[in-house]
């Protein structure tokens, strides 16, 4: 639960409500499939009921909650349909995005991405037991950064916003099914390095093939196929 917020600009409160809801959702303070009331959201976010009432239609339109007659609001389920839809969306978006990124990304950006991934891969290879949480968190951040760098490079706010919403759903799927773990750090870094290597050739077809392979692999893990 968060401290109650003093009165503020309406738009400001709506954005705060959205940010706090998604943060609590991704922190697993509320879970997929859970029923929740507006009053509970007030307590969770520390924001007034008016801001929560304005938040609900946005969450419904983004597919993050649905209203069930006689029962109230339900957080989105992680099911087969969500997994297939979310990863199909990624394939459609990231194929085109990586093709454009391959043609336009600066050498400095590619060097940064390569260095970050090689650093995580080296740390994973050298890890000798003990606390793995920091390495996994670092790998997760590097993972998301590659995909967001490619999408945001398009400079298209509509695409970026749609991708951001879908990424919340993908994170929910990962929490329930395939959250990046110690065993997955090296395979995922290798897949990402294959994408980076393909981009470095400036061959869009090769970059698309590498991205396809990576997203398909992630989808199959979520479906329990590998």
TrEMBL record:
This is GntR family transcriptional regulator. PANTHER family: TRANSCRIPTIONAL REGULATOR, GNTR FAMILY, UXU OPERON TRANSCRIPTIONAL REGULATOR. InterPro entries: GntR_C, TF_FadR/GntR_C, Tscrpt_reg_HTH_GntR, WH-like_DNA-bd_sf, WH_DNA-bd_sf. Residues 11-78 form the HTH gntR-type domain. Gene3D superfamilies: GntR ligand-binding domain-like (1.20.120.530), Winged helix-like DNA-binding domain superfamily/Winged helix DNA-binding domain (1.10.10.10). Keywords: DNA-binding, Transcription, Transcription regulation. Signal peptide: none annotated. GO terms for molecular function: DNA binding; DNA-binding transcription factor activity.
């Amino acid at each position: 639960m968060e401290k109650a917020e003093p009165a503020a600009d309406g738009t400001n409160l709506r954005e705060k409500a959205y940010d706090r809801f998604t943060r609590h959702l991704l922190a697993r303070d509320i879970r997929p499939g859970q029923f929740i009331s507006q009053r509970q959201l007030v307590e969770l976010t520390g924001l007034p009921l008016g801001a929560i009432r304005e938040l609900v239609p946005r969450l419904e339109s983004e597919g993050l909650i649905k209203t069930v007659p006689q029962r109230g609001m339900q957080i989105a389920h992680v099911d087969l349909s969500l997994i297939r839809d979310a990863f199909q969306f990624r394939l459609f978006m990231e194929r085109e995005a990586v093709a454009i990124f391959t043609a336009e990304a600066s050498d400095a950006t590619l060097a940064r991405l390569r260095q970050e991934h090689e650093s995580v891969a080296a740390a994973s290879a050298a890890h000798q037991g003990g606390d793995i949480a920091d390495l996994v968190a670092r790998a997760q951040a590097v993972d998301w950064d590659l995909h967001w760098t490619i999408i945001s490079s398009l400079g298209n706010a509509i695409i970026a916003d749609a991708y951001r919403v879908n990424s919340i759903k993908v994170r929910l799927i990962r929490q329930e099914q395939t959250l990046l773990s110690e065993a997955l750090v090296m395979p995922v870094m290798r897949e990402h390095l294959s994408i980076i290597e393909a981009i470095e050739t400036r061959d869009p077809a090769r970059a698309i093939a590498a991205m396809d392979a990576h997203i398909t692999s992630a989808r199959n893990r979520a479906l329990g196929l590998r």
